[in-house]
Amino acid sequence: MKNRTLFAIPDKQIYLCGHSLGPVCHAAKETLNEGLQSWSHELVGGWNKSAWIHLPQKLGKSIAPLIGAQPEEVIVADSTSINLLKCLLTALALNSQRKVILTEHDNFPTDHYIAQSITAIDPTIQVKTVANNELVAMLDETIAVLMLTQVNYRTSQKHDIASLTQKAHALGILVVWDLSHSVGAMSLACADDHVDFAVGCTYKYLNGGPGAPGFIYATKRHHERMVPMIKGWMGHKLPFAFAPDFEPAEGIKAFLTGTPAIMSLKALEGALTCFDAVDLSSLQEKSVKLSQQLIDKIQQALPMLHLVSPQAASVRGSHVAYAHPQAYAITQALISRGVIVDYREPGLIRMGISPLYIDELDIDRVVQTLIEIFESRLYQREVFQKRLLVT
Amino acid sequence: MKNRTLFAIPDKQIYLCGHSLGPVCHAAKETLNEGLQSWSHELVGGWNKSAWIHLPQKLGKSIAPLIGAQPEEVIVADSTSINLLKCLLTALALNSQRKVILTEHDNFPTDHYIAQSITAIDPTIQVKTVANNELVAMLDETIAVLMLTQVNYRTSQKHDIASLTQKAHALGILVVWDLSHSVGAMSLACADDHVDFAVGCTYKYLNGGPGAPGFIYATKRHHERMVPMIKGWMGHKLPFAFAPDFEPAEGIKAFLTGTPAIMSLKALEGALTCFDAVDLSSLQEKSVKLSQQLIDKIQQALPMLHLVSPQAASVRGSHVAYAHPQAYAITQALISRGVIVDYREPGLIRMGISPLYIDELDIDRVVQTLIEIFESRLYQREVFQKRLLVT
């Protein structure tokens, strides 16, 4: 298994925020610098000479094996929010006899907001939002699209993609999965699970850099019939013909819109090489093992922390969340001691376990630091109460 | 006036492609490197410590004076295509009794495609596309939004923003201006001209780097009533409250959607410092003077080149376009001689004059090189006939 030496993580830090923003790897620094050099020396010629124009597809091909997809089913473009908008609109158009998007209350907020954007633009579309445990019962033949995030950003609860997709398909429902909190930390099998569309984030476990563009997956089954609903010149069949009417590029490329943000893509290019030759089963195995180690040790030594993530590894993602009345102050005290974690409302400490650069010794040190923080009541200091803007 | 020494333009090159992709300036290299250092050393802490979270607004404030806007009227986000989608949807919602977007045939293709996206999503909306000289006659009280690009990407023909905006407003029509081929090369006065909304590109005359995010301007007059139609978490009033329902941030910030691409924004941050203390009237004056020099000398020495840009500087942008049956080969021959220009269908040579780094000696050398290319028939060589993917 690859390890921490690939990354520029500050000495003595244990970085448990890979579920929020992955660290920079040396390869990403190199490719970003390469991008800067091309811009300096080739200027506009970089689009051809350095093949910037092909980067969205090239990076899609690198991501494809990480989600169990074919190379031609994935492309990198825009943000996850915009990509979700594109997938939902295209899925609704494919299932146009139906007018309902079904999702769950605790989906990631921007996913809700994007669905709400669609109902604002097209009032014939309706969003049904139900509790997690009502999802299966609410599937019926009025639903056009089931929109879910596989791993819950707060609790780390993990959906069974295969099972839910199968149940949805049995009723003629298309599925759009948000893999933002999954990809890069576990096995995924979009093709085998017959997923219709998926989106995901590249700056969390994929370590692409702050705000790195997201990705879109669309199964080959839909490539012939699907229509891009947000039509931009990079998704045109012949962008440099500058035709006034939109004619979509073939396949996944039709999901491109405006000019891709090359500097951000160049950093992602290097970051993805950290996954070369990584076996996803081993990656997931390591994530599960380390998570279990953390959960077991906290249960033994720190009963005041309440586990809100599932106990069972089979339904848990790669972060672990604990509730505590002083959760925010505890995260700040941990950070002051070099254990980088984050906070989410309401009252949750999140610890992300990215199997590429976290190991067993790290987990032991995290638990030891938590014990010290509680023994010394370090977190009660006033300095740790102050809320930062980004949590 | 600032000059070429601010930029990393290869020696002996004359770079006439600033209308397509601006060169890298030394300041942009520094800020991009600063972004990489923050990511390396601060990791997720960079959102607060390096104030990444405020970059979209900070850069909007830097762009505001370049388009004659107030600092709180501009923000950097997404691509120009996506920003245009957001502006059109919001403008349509503000003028919801009307259902027509009016534009001109020769608008930039992605602007057409985005308008076509809206009609595909909401079939009650209609796009009327007319010839440039029919625009004023077609303005009437059925039109909700007039959508135009100020400077034509091919011919460089320039609209009079003040006059068209005034005529539109007199009939209750809102205007959305695309300033992609204007900003950074001329005076603009969005506030004084009462422009409702505008979008623009930051990688052309603003030199922000390949695919750098675009900007949105929305007049303060609309801030209270306008509603963001593409709702993303960064445009939420309290993004880190993670509320399931969207409540827009106040003012221009509501136009943010997903997580901004920080590495691309960091390059733009440095690039914009090249405009510090630049007087826009002088900038425009220099652009006009150099363009006139080029046009006059070509008219004298190269009658085989047919000027398709307007003769009158008052209705011309900062690039000059010539038609010739061998236009593509001529651009390639010029590039081989260090004069970097580009080609656009049908049969046009474009020469962009970015007043920040082009001077009179450059223009003389461009004309001299053109003369040599015609005398030697260099462009007739087979190697210059081969079409590249990106032109």
Automatic annotation (TrEMBL), chains A, B:
GO CC field: cytoplasm
One of the Pfam families matching this protein, by short name: KYNU_C
InterPro entries: Kynureninase, PyrdxlP-dep_Trfase, PyrdxlP-dep_Trfase_major, PyrdxlP-dep_Trfase_small
Entry EC no(s): 3.7.1.3
Classification via SUPFAM superfamilies: PLP-dependent transferases
BP term (GO), one: NAD+ biosynthetic process
Catalytic reactions of this protein: 3-hydroxy-L-kynurenine + H2O = 3-hydroxyanthranilate + L-alanine + H(+); L-kynurenine + H2O = anthranilate + L-alanine + H(+)
Cofactor: pyridoxal 5'-phosphate
Subunit structure as annotated in this protein's UniProt entry: Homodimer.
Name this polypeptide is given: Kynureninase
Source species: Candidatus Berkiella aquae
